[in-house]
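Quick one:
INPUT:
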């Protein structure tokens, strides 16, 4: 069996018995309640990213957005700005390109630090919706996505980076992050969301 096949099989077996945090009801605590974090796909930063990553990453990110929307799970838009340096909220550089299939009513977080949980309302927003599991996509794989991944783990969320849904300035680094942190493949995501309670 190929390495990816073994990894997927082990993951699905673990997911079947994994107890998710956040509830005193044993049956309720086992149910995955997912959200998708779409991180920093802003016009200011996209030109700095590796073309190879952008080519596949943007298509896969939109595929994940469509899947979460079809299942009725939250999609959270995350934007970065450095006070005094930008990009300034309300400007074209701050926004996601129109090719990203977000919608105006998708919840929005604006952050000033790499970790999207730091000094934002993200944790409160997720907990109010009962979310216990976050799936991360966007950029940068070696920066804000990685920082947010660790931030989620620190707050006891189950966190998964999505393979081929990450972008950075160097595709070699993106591939390394995906391998080191065992990023979840698209087929596994399909299975997980199909079996998550709605």
């Amino acid at each position: 069996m190929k390495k990816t096949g073994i990894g997927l099989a082990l993951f699905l077996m673990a997911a079947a018995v994994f107890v998710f945090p956040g509830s005193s009801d044993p049956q309720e605590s086992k149910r995955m309640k997912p959200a998708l974090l779409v991180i920093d796909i802003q016009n200011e930063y996209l030109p700095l990213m590796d073309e190879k990553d952008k080519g596949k990453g943007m298509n896969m990110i939109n595929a994940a957005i469509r899947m979460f929307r079809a299942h009725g799970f939250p999609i959270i838009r995350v934007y970065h700005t450095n006070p005094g340096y930008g990009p300034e909220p309300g400007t074209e550089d701050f926004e996601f390109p129109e090719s990203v299939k977000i919608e105006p009513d998708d919840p929005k977080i604006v952050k000033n630090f790499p970790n999207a949980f730091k000094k934002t309302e993200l944790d409160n927003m997720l907990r109010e919706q009962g979310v216990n599991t976050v799936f991360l996509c966007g950029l940068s794989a070696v920066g804000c996505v990685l920082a947010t991944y660790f931030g989620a783990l620190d707050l006891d969320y189950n966190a998964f980076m999505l393979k081929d849904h990450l972008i950075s300035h160097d595709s070699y680094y993106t591939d390394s992050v995906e391998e080191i942190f065992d990023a979840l493949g698209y087929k596994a995501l399909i299975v997980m969301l199909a079996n998550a309670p709605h």
